[in-house]
UniProtKB/TrEMBL annotation:
Keywords: Membrane, Signal, Transmembrane, Transmembrane helix
Domain of life: Bacteria
Coiled-coil intervals: none
Name the record gives this protein: DUF5683 domain-containing protein
Source organism (scientific name): Alloprevotella rava F0323
UniProt KW Lipid metabolism keyword: no
Length: 269
């Protein structure tokens, strides 16, 4: 019995001795576990923060790309609208210019101007819209008509006077109307016969010249109408010009050198 008791007592003492060591070990294990858990939590927090930072940077990059894309699209849309507006404006301007050009730029037909001038003198100038030429041609027609009629009347008077002075009939004395009042030509009939004959021929020549001048004015009006219509599209820009300016001409020979002065003529076309 004593042996068993002693064994039990010994076992109890050993157990009592080993109990604090186990508690300390368990406590150490608990502390280590708690530190590990805290470090894992800290690491996880850092990882989460880094993930959030990375996600924020990615979002920033995506937003920047989206903004740049939208800006590019807006600029392209603006450019397209601007180009469309410019095209529309250019087309409208060209159409207006064409309308103005078609309205203002009148190009006459030479054949029509020729026929109008042949049918009615001055109509070719009216068709060519050169109204300032009408007084010139109509003044020429009136002047030639007046000269023709006046010379015809003087020719008739002097031809009748010449016939009356040549027939030796005392009843026909129309030649006295061509002389001053109470003018006596007795004894000088031959002289006045030659005078009346010369004047008759002179006024006949003047009458014929007046008729030719009338025809000349008519032909000139026809030619002017045709040429004016033909040259309506002729280039008369300032590049077509002739200039006269003084020039110095130098002539050099093996023995001497001479200088001459003159006028130089230059054509620009």
């Amino acid at each position: 019995m004593t042996k068993k008791l002693s064994q039990y007592i010994l076992i109890i003492l050993v157990a009592a001795f080993l109990a604090p060591a186990r508690g300390a070990a368990q406590a150490r294990l608990i502390v280590d576990d708690s530190t590990k858990v805290s470090s894992v939590k800290a690491i996880s927090k850092k990882v989460k923060k880094q993930k959030k930072a990375i996600e924020a940077e990615m979002l920033k990059g995506e937003t920047i790309e989206m903004l740049t894309d939208t800006i590019k699209r807006i600029q392209e849309a603006k450019l397209q609208t601007d180009t469309a507006r410019l095209r529309m404006m250019a087309e409208s301007i060209t159409k207006e210019n064409l309308k103005k050009a078609t309205k203002t730029a009148f190009i006459p037909d030479p054949k029509r101007a020729l026929w109008l001038a042949l049918v009615c003198p001055g109509a070719g100038q009216i068709y060519n819209r050169k109204y300032w030429k009408l007084p010139i041609f109509y003044g020429g027609f009136l002047g030639c008509t007046y000269a023709l009629m006046w010379n015809q009347q003087m020719y008739r008077d002097y031809s009748q006077a010449y016939l009356d002075i040549m027939d030796n009939d005392p009843n026909t004395k129309s030649y006295l109307n061509m002389l001053p009042p109470n003018y006596d030509i007795t004894g000088r009939e031959e002289r006045f016969k030659t005078i009346f004959k010369n004047r008759k021929n002179r006024y006949r020549r003047y009458r014929d010249m007046s008729a030719f001048a009338f025809v000349g004015v008519y032909v000139l009006s026809v030619i002017d109408a045709y040429v004016d219509a033909q040259l309506s599209v002729f280039d008369i820009s300032p590049d077509l010009s002739m200039q006269l300016q003084p020039a110095v001409i130098q002539q050099s020979t093996p023995l001497s050198r001479q200088t001459a002065y003159g006028i130089g003529c230059s054509f620009n076309f």
